[in-house]
Amino acid sequence: MVSPDSSPFSPLLKLMDVKSATDALSGGSVIAVLTVMGVAVHAGGWIVVLYGALNALPKDVLEAAQVDGASAWRTMWHVKLPMVRTYVAFVLISSFASGSQVFVEPTALSTGAPGQISPTWSVNQLAYVYATQDGDFGKAAALSLAMLAVGLLAAWIVITRTRMYASDSSDSR
User: Which one of 5, 16, 66, 79 is least enclosed by Cβ atoms within 10 Å?
Assistant: First the structure.
């Protein structure tokens, strides 16, 4: 994907003056490349979940908003988004969980462009190095538990902020 010779994005890469895969992974562009890889891997799931949720919205409610004169933006913010908030929360939690478990992408990129990405670039890679190369399973386990705690905290914040489990009858709006 980042090699101008074989990438479907070669015109864009040439416009950015990228001559090889190593050029694309140098400097601060590693995070951008990993972000694009993560979005490409998970976007299909997000689309399926949110498309299904939006298609399941009652047509009479959407028609009522239109009859009341709500613009497309108002309909989205005040009708659709509140009705699909549980699905949005699910996508946010899933995205955070998969985003915090980055391992394969930097490992794959480091084999394609040796020396550009550290073998301990992500927390998962660091835990892997501790366990397999250093033999320090305690550090690896501690990192894993710290990641679990951060993930649970992030999930709790999303659940409480989006009122994911609030029933429609208990909404104050």
Answer: 5
pTM of the model: 0.69
Q: Is 143:123 a contact under the CB 8 Å cutoff?
A: yes
Other Cβ atoms within 10 Å of 99 Cβ, number: 14
User: How far is the C-alpha of 7 from the C-alpha of 9, rounded, in Å?
Assistant: 5
Burial bucket for residue 145 (CB in 10 Å: 0-12, 13-18, 19+) = exposed
Tokens of 48: 């399926």
Check: CB of residue 97 under 8 Å from CB of residue 147: no
Tell me the DSSP string of 56-84. Answer: TS-HHHHHHHHHTT--HHHHIIIIIHHHT
Which pLDDT does position 170 carry in this prediction? 47
Instruction: Tell me if 82 sits within 8 A of 108, measured CB to CB.
Output: no
Per-residue model confidence as pLDDT tens digits over 90-120: 998 988 888 888 888 888 877 766 677 788 8
